[in-house]
Amino acid sequence: MHTFKIDCQLHYRVIQMTEFVFQFEVAEHPWQTLIHESFQFKPDLAFEQYERDAGLNRLIRVNAPEGDLSVSYTAKVQTHIPERNTSLKECEIKDLPSDTLFYLAPSRFCESDLIDTMVTNTFAELPKGYSRVQAICDWIHDNIIYQSGSSDSTTTARDILVNRAGVCRDFAHLGIAICRALNIPARFVFGYMPFYQAQPDFHAIFEVYLENQWMLFDATRMGPIDQFVRVGTGLDAKDVPFATVYGEIELISMSPVIELV
Amino acid sequence: MHTFKIDCQLHYRVIQMTEFVFQFEVAEHPWQTLIHESFQFKPDLAFEQYERDAGLNRLIRVNAPEGDLSVSYTAKVQTHIPERNTSLKECEIKDLPSDTLFYLAPSRFCESDLIDTMVTNTFAELPKGYSRVQAICDWIHDNIIYQSGSSDSTTTARDILVNRAGVCRDFAHLGIAICRALNIPARFVFGYMPFYQAQPDFHAIFEVYLENQWMLFDATRMGPIDQFVRVGTGLDAKDVPFATVYGEIELISMSPVIELV
Amino acid sequence: MHTFKIDCQLHYRVIQMTEFVFQFEVAEHPWQTLIHESFQFKPDLAFEQYERDAGLNRLIRVNAPEGDLSVSYTAKVQTHIPERNTSLKECEIKDLPSDTLFYLAPSRFCESDLIDTMVTNTFAELPKGYSRVQAICDWIHDNIIYQSGSSDSTTTARDILVNRAGVCRDFAHLGIAICRALNIPARFVFGYMPFYQAQPDFHAIFEVYLENQWMLFDATRMGPIDQFVRVGTGLDAKDVPFATVYGEIELISMSPVIELV
Amino acid sequence: MHTFKIDCQLHYRVIQMTEFVFQFEVAEHPWQTLIHESFQFKPDLAFEQYERDAGLNRLIRVNAPEGDLSVSYTAKVQTHIPERNTSLKECEIKDLPSDTLFYLAPSRFCESDLIDTMVTNTFAELPKGYSRVQAICDWIHDNIIYQSGSSDSTTTARDILVNRAGVCRDFAHLGIAICRALNIPARFVFGYMPFYQAQPDFHAIFEVYLENQWMLFDATRMGPIDQFVRVGTGLDAKDVPFATVYGEIELISMSPVIELV
To answer: Domain Transglutaminase-like, which positions (chains A, B, C, D) (predicted)?
Structure first.
């Protein structure tokens, strides 16, 4: 069990009246308890809060006028991510809960339907279960370079196999695509993680359904996975951007700081 | 208001024990009232029914052993699709209900993020509202040929712009992708429709959020849109296949008949 | 018969010692007679002239040190492009000269092997011959918008079908790809053309082998095709760039002026 | 120095009058001396022989009527491929002979312009020269599985990076694309090679320009590279197919046998 303080500061210059949808609030999820949170817009704007998926994704809409926009979010949250159980088995399709089947299909950035040849040759023969998903993460870690700026907002898992470089969202997309191609439910998870050595930033990992539970995996090895605070959960990055911006803006700075208390 | 009898017969040969997820039951939706329905598997198999999205998508899972599998679904349903209101406006983003925002993002088969140049040049200058969505449908109808077998399960909206041929799902995907690129919420709708002149088959169309309601559009012009019975609603075809098959099977025949009573 | 004066000025800033391969000299070709030409580099650099394809492509290599590089090329050339014969037939494959067969295959920017569905549906049934190639040009003109900056150096014919916008090289690539998919030899032609109303620029068109001759086609309709002065001929744009630059430079200005004398 | 007997038998069923262009004759090339060759069509058909690139590519055209078509080619050839010089350097662009520059550009199946990120990260820092090209071959051998049927006639180098499986032409395409992205001239070579253990088949490898010579490389490691008999040389596979078929046929059998005398 860990307790974290989150202090997320976003600063924009809005060129023209712009609608923002933010997702930076920690999720309602059994693995974490929200002790306190607050956020503030400067200027003080009317906003709307709403959620998708029974609180798993919490969003805030705001319509910001021309000028500066600052967003300040602070939270205190306790996490209790289950210990890793490395002996978990993969489910037969027939044994998968129905609500996990949705995470077997391809999605915009995880074209699991287009990477069959690679997946079959590389992973189909491995013993099924936790160790196979770990082997997928190891393969990604060994074959894909983490490189800021090497991908953009349209880069897909298939592109990452070509480029062999990407950032955390790309590592997650590739892991998800490979798992789905093997009929293992997998989904994108977005949140805060204290990095060993890097600028504060949001982090993206993925989770996989094994035996009777979802389990987090992070092919980037950038930080302690048991210290991950969940914000968003979706099919891929397009479901859970920290900010969707419908208008012309400039991102001046972002600083999503998370500290172990 | 119309009343329909649906008689959907599917027949498979199962080569090896296979998990099926079927979606052929009519949806729970304000525009249709289910008077009666029943379905039957032959052989008589244990199955599980579940739903997604509050009844909007109803699914049936069944694990079928080697041998023949027949599925028989009959239903009687009354539809009351609102009359077309051709003066509906497009919403500004800020005026869109929050639960429609999800349908602005790209999806596996509707890469709205990759067709900007085409969409901007062709549709950005048109007057906003119902007539613009109708213009999109007209453009698709005039530029894309309906041709059985011209696409497959991985064909996307972008591919359809290249191939200039497709089937109903492709027409719907392209309509959706164009709408989303214009910031108009759009989603895939799957169901039964009595065709003027064609073999009985499932049909795919799309719906678009205008002013204060979803409205159905069908760029194929294959049948009377007010006689559409909804089965599934999703981001694109991958969300609502009539059958997802995890195993080796052969589809012997399918006959989704719908008749106006 | 026309006589032209060409005055092509290129100006670069070379950041680091850079190898250039230029192709701006008018080609040796039966349809044009070179009366006079001269070129000059500033600073005065050693260069190498060479050709490919028996003078059809004439190239100049120069290794330029850091600093400014100016290239000045002037020429006087008489053209005598055959009058358009609109009754030319397409050749059966068996009647094509062997040296035209090379221009039936796909190339980097003309993926004639990937656009079969579109080509078959749109052009396969048209009467063969000049009129079919003209129909291809008309289709491109009607469906693709000429738009500066809408494409880049990796844009292919297939991309143009998606984007529905491009510049002259893209119009040519699409024309070539469609012709090749129909088993009509087609190749990329690059040169000078006096535009009706536009900044001086190089121009790219294509030529097609009909009956017993190559014939120029220009889907852009940007200028008088009988006033085209050929510089390069190749499979596609990658074969005949006006400048290939192996190093870090900045293009300060280019002004390829052509005037009817 | 090796002497080889080649016995290449092709057998087709021609459904409809079909034009064939064959390339199975050994090339005129300084590394090999043709002692004797003969070929025969059954039925006995009129044919045309022609060449491209000064004998480097020798082709035979024949128009075959409906029915069976057999092609029998036998040759005796002596090869004297230079010994491998593993200390060869890469040329600076400025030192490359002009006729090698053509092999720096991307081609249909070798999109060297689309794999920059991967190439830069993986190979840019390696010491230049023979050893770097060998490292490219080793990387391909270690990362790509040789798998019959895993690719088709439209598969490109970029696809191979995704699929991580291919046949000899794909291995060659990837090697070529990587070399070109590093500004090393590289081209596709097609011919006969006695395999250690496999069915007789044509083989595809690539050659790279180092210091003052072309040198053969084979990332498949399927046979002795000094026992390669050259048939075709081109930008990629589309330039040198053993048979281009313009019509409807069935390939009954092919047996390109090569034996060391």
So the answer is: 160-221
